[in-house]
Amino acid sequence: MTGKDQFTEEEWTAIMLLPIQVISAGTFADGRKLISSVREMAAGAKALSELSARYPDNAIVAGFQEGASGTHKLPGAEHAKSTEDVINGLLAETEKAWAILRSKTTDEEAAQCREVLIGVETAVVSATGSGMLGFGGEKVSAAEQSVLDRVTAILSA
After folding, report:
1. What is the pTM of this model?
2. Is 77 helix (H, G, I), strand (E, B) or coil?
3. Residues 28-51: pLDDT tens digits?
4. What is the rounded CA–CA span in Å between residue 143 and residue 107?
């Protein structure tokens, strides 16, 4: 199985930030307030933990937990002027990191990583509704669906 030693430190860090990038992009997608965002981030973290447990032998999936628990600065959003710029920056970095991951892993490992990341993104965008404080209303907004579709497209390349 592919492990940390097959990557440079910079590559490993980029890959470990993948879950945080997709969680953040999904959280920013709906433009809602703090309470909804906290619930979405919590849903993403829970999904990451549960989905990662399916693949205990995948060092990259195990590393996703490491990246999610750290205090890393997310690249791609530093100079953003709008929420859309933040999302675009996060997804551009996601695409770069995914390309690195794909270049050095087996198809099976990549498929496991893809399943985890898409599952995490799905949990985030499905965590709250469009009603008051995230309860009720539309479950997945058009903006959230768009981010989920973009993440899925990146991870399917």
Report:
1. 0.86
2. coil
3. 887 756 556 788 888 999 999 999
4. 30
